[in-house]
Specification:
Blueprint lengths: L1 E4 L2 H14 L11 E6 L2 E5 L5 H13 L12 E4 L9
């Protein structure tokens, strides 16, 4: 799974803030692992059996990681595929 955050100018900070929240989604012994950060994206080795549970958790954590002024909602997207290119 490759996950992209809209608004790349704040994307790096949001990814950094996400790392603080990351333990919150590690409540279960998931097999999925975060592999790397590429600019405003986090790349995971996502096990298909965990997809339905983890994608919403990751998207929620990313869209709420950086408080925006005037109650502007954060936005995050997810894509899945056999490799990074296919996930886009």
């Amino acid at each position: 799974m490759a996950k992209n955050l809209r608004g790349q100018s704040n994307g790096k900070r949001t990814c950094d803030d996400y790392f603080i929240q990351y333990p919150a989604i590690r409540e279960k012994p998931y097999q999925t692992r975060m592999l790397l950060q590429v600019h405003d994206e986090l790349v995971f080795d996502l096990h298909v059996s965990e997809q339905a549970d983890l994608i919403p958790r990751i998207l929620h954590a990313m869209s709420h990681a950086l408080p925006l002024p005037h109650d502007v909602p954060g936005s995050a997207e997810a894509g899945t595929g056999a490799n990074w290119l296919a996930a886009h």
